[in-house]
Amino acid sequence: MKKRFVAGLMSVVLVMGLLAGCGNQKGNAKTTKKSVGKKAVCTVQMNKNFNESLIKFLEDNGYKDKNYMVSPTSFRAALALAVEGAAGVTREELLKAMGFESMEEIPVWYDSVQKSVDRFYEYADDYSVENMDYRIQNSIWNNSSQGGDFSKKYIKEMTEKYNATAENATSNEITDKVNNWVKEGTNGLIPVIADNLSIYRAVLVNTLYLRTAWENNFWIYGNENFNTYDGKKVKKDYMQQEEEMRYYEDENGKLVVVPMEGNIDAVFILGDVKNVAEKISKASYCHVTLRVPQFEAETSFESKELINYLQSLGVETAFNMDADFSNMYDEAEVYIEDIVQKTKIKADENGIEAAAATAIMCDAAAAEMSEEKEFIADQPFRYMLTTDDENAEVLFYGQVVE
């Protein structure tokens, strides 16, 4: 019987407050700034690797010894909704923090993510597709009780570039409407993104949801010890498979790439493997005994962690009265008040049959006999869910340390 891997993700919310009636959002941006009238001049370094810098920032700021998961893809998609509404220095700062050199690159990147959804169903077997799901969705919400509306140009760009829905809602309606939209977009895994959105001028939301199956059978191995980050031993239920799969090992650690239905890969990492993307490209097929625990993770970033991350990259004007979101509103002046992300993942042994895995395994089985390897995740490990493309998109990243 096929086993189930459910990655239910994730929602990012950018909430925009009115400049009038709200205090400045002070930050810790590492940037040189001087005021010129109402605008600001900033020197910002291009963030060439958004995924790695986000992960490093989180682990340097309290998450190194915790189970957690983040979606770089969903965060970046939500930022795309904001940067399209920005202008001037605010746009420049956000653009560079996102790792892009020009505005034209953002919809090209987003289109590549959307195409991975198309490939997901193209590579799925007809028998298994009814049990699979992969979607990315965007919406922009205007609080009509505070007057005004998004500019027609902004709505047009959101619709054409990001297939976003544009909605008006009163202060009494907006919280329930946004939460219901998030709940539906994540298949109920994230029922609430925020308890009170009535005070905000605008809410920009992205959801990303994935449900797929292992190409090759896992079976329940048993209840065994797991060595935690702080040296303790705890019991976990392990699952195991022995198959041909891509494997890499060096003096720092090892990784294994596990194929999943729909052109998706799960990557498990032990040790301190450097430059994971490069090492994945160097991985070769081996016969691997893979044993990992079943696990669940649920993470909420709602204490300014993501704002602090952007500030560390030099984004400053977006969070205070120097903000320029004039492409979003014709009249109202707004700035980013908060950014929230919630994620949830489940990896378990409750079966979903997905017979389509056979085709890939038959191809691998036709290769020469390979060296046998072991990957036993009985200690802290990292994991990624990526698209199986030349330029793989990191949909989810996380770790299990306890």
Descriptive account of the structure:
The structure is a single chain. The protein has 402 residues and is an alpha+beta fold. It folds into two domains: 4-212 and 297-345, Antithrombin, Chain I, domain 2, CATH 3.30.497.10; 218-294 and 354-400, Alpha-1-antitrypsin, domain 1, CATH 2.30.39. Helices cover 25% and strands 37% of the residues. It has helices spanning 50-63, 72-83, 88-97, 105-122, 152-162, 174-185, 276-282, 305-312, 358-365; strands at residues 4-18, 33-36, 39-42, 68-70, 133-143, 165-169, 202-213, 219-227, 233-250, 253-260, 264-271, 284-293, 295-301, 334-347, 372-376, 381-387, 394-400. Strands 4, 8, 9, 10, 11, 12, 15, 16 and 17 form a nine-stranded mixed β-sheet that branches. It has a six-stranded mixed β-sheet with strand order 6-5-7-1-14-13, sandwiched between helices. It has a two-stranded antiparallel ribbon with strand order 2-3. The longest helix has 18 residues, at 105-122. The radius of gyration is 22 Å and the shape is elongated. The relative contact order is 0.24.
The CATH architecture designation of the largest domain is 2-Layer Sandwich
Which term fits the overall shape?
Answer: elongated
**Average residue-wise pLDDT:** 77
Number of strands: 17
Low-confidence stretches: 1-11, 17-46, 349-370
Strand content: 35-45%
* End-to-end distance: 29 Å
CATH topology of the largest domain: Antithrombin, Chain I, domain 2
